[in-house]
User: Which sequence fits this backbone?
């Protein structure tokens, strides 16, 4: 058994550049099993780049990414999904002109084709996730996704990323465009997922939401990890306030 059995993510010395811009500079990052971690920082800090390196959307120029104790540095996204990773990107990618039922079946079709089946999933079904986000009722009646509210579309896409085999859920700004109560509802649902054993990593700008959900917070700045810790502790640091919190 590996010494890092409790580490669901381990990134070592990640570097990534795009032309003359380097949004990841020697980044080492780790998340424990069952943790709800938030990534914050000003625009251009490197949050989305780190997210994409973990998800496999981008490949590091240097360094390694380990998921579920396996070196996945060269794995494309679908191979990471096979291990039990669910991903919700910032832009909503639900099929808006299809009905909700069809959208919910798309991940299962892809899973059968690709053999998705991590052995460390949290055991949360898509139907259970729908209940936690309060949208079980939207499936009935053959409604199109385009008929749902913005928040409901966001929640639907999160649920589409979840299955019993998913143990790690990666979310990029899941509350963007939501109102205060919808944001709080999102936080409550994610905390319920965490209580059921799912590890969640969230890129987020809404500090009230981060305070609501995060076990630990990672602050990025100019492509580097600037600070890590509990939100209440980081909020007391003048250097963190100077670069982000204000």
Assistant:
């Amino acid at each position: 058994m590996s010494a890092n059995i409790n580490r669901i993510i381990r990134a070592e010395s990640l570097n990534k550049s795009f032309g003359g811009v380097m949004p990841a500079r020697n980044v080492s990052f780790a998340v424990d099993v069952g943790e709800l971690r938030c990534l914050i920082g000003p625009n251009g800090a490197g949050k989305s780049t780190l997210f994409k390196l973990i998800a496999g959307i981008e490949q590091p120029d240097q360094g390694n990414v380990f998921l579920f104790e396996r070196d996945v540095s060269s794995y494309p996204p679908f191979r990471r999904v096979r291990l039990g990773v669910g991903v919700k990107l910032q832009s909503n990618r639900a099929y808006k002109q299809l009905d909700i039922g069809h959208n919910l079946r798309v991940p299962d079709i892809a899973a059968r084709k690709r053999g998705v089946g991590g052995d460390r999933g949290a055991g949360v079904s898509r139907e259970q996730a729908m209940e936690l986000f309060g949208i079980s009722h939207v499936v009935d009646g053959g409604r199109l996704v385009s008929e749902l509210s913005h928040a409901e579309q966001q929640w639907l896409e999160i649920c589409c990323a979840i299955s019993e085999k998913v143990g790690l859920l990666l979310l990029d700004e899941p509350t963007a465009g939501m109102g205060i109560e919808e944001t709080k509802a999102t936080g409550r649902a994610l905390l319920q997922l965490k209580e059921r054993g799912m590890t969640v990593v969230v890129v987020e700008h809404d500090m009230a939401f981060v305070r609501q959900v995060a076990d630990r917070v990672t602050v990025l700045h100019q492509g580097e990890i600037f600070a890590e810790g509990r939100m209440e502790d980081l909020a007391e640091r003048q250097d963190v306030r100077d670069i982000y919190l204000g």
The chain has a mean pLDDT of 89. The CA atoms of residues 226 and 239 lie 9 Å apart.
